[in-house]
Amino acid sequence: MNTIARVASSRRRALAQWLNYLPLPLLEAALVVSWSSGFIGARFSIDHASPMLVVFWRCVLVTLILLPFVARSLRRASPAVLLENASIGLLAMAGYLYGVVQGIALGVPAGLAALLADLLPIGMALLTTLVLRQRLGRRVWLGLAVGLSGVLLVTWDALAWGGAPPWAYGLPLLGMLSLAIATLWKRQRGAAANALGLLPNLWLQCGISGIAFAFVAGSEGSLLPVVNSGFALSVLWTAGLATLGGYGLYWVCVNRSSPTRVASVLYLSPGVTLLWAWVMFDEPLSAWMVLGTAVSAVGIGLVVRGESR
């Protein structure tokens, strides 16, 4: 067992070094693609099982996959470090996913839920300014506003109010704020929050979120997996692309740049999501969506230039 743990630890260090050598824009591009895949996975899974059941098994699968690679680091970590990182993970993953997925399940239209979730850059900037008292330049604020206008153009045709209870519309917004708070918390803690490394942190996030989703999914019915290929594909898709890829790259990019920049990059996710949907589900792709994505890219450029100054 010790030999397996040493090999896993060596491979984990090699992965971290490899990620540090890759150019940041390349990592950000991969982040946008993998983050967008989560919305496609949710869209696909609705036809095969309860969304919360899929999220629960997604967390279970990731914890099982990562355990051999992180067991040694977790044993060596202090309870305080484990508790802090688990708390950050509960906000970042369970809080965000519950807000977005449960909002859609209660009747909030997917387009509106995605738009509220895509307010992450604005939420991050407001928390940075009001809570952390860090001043952002005018160019950064202009970039955030331009990027948001691009998101509005992309999602305009998909926006509708639906028939959800009024309070349900606040769930995606609360999910967005949960991820923003977790991101800034982790960033402010610096080396203390990153002492475990990427994979152990991701394992803790999935582990604590899996427990939370077990209660949520269990209240809706059985926790047993649905025996069909659609459910299996949904879990594999969201575990591999959306969790290991999306959340993993999200934290890598946050550690290498800034929360505001990484959040602004996610302005591109609605356009990429619609492109995924066009390829996989033959959903319409309009000129407004392409224009909105281009406008969002301009906004991201302004944010990057403003932060570099």
Automatic annotation (TrEMBL):
Residues 30-155, 170-304 form the EamA domain. Pfam families: EamA. The keyword Transport does not apply. This is DMT family transporter. Coiled coil: none annotated. It comes from Stutzerimonas marianensis. Belongs to the EamA transporter family. InterPro entries: AA-Vitamin_Transporters, EamA_dom, EmrE-like. It is found in: Membrane. Keywords: Membrane, Transmembrane, Transmembrane helix.
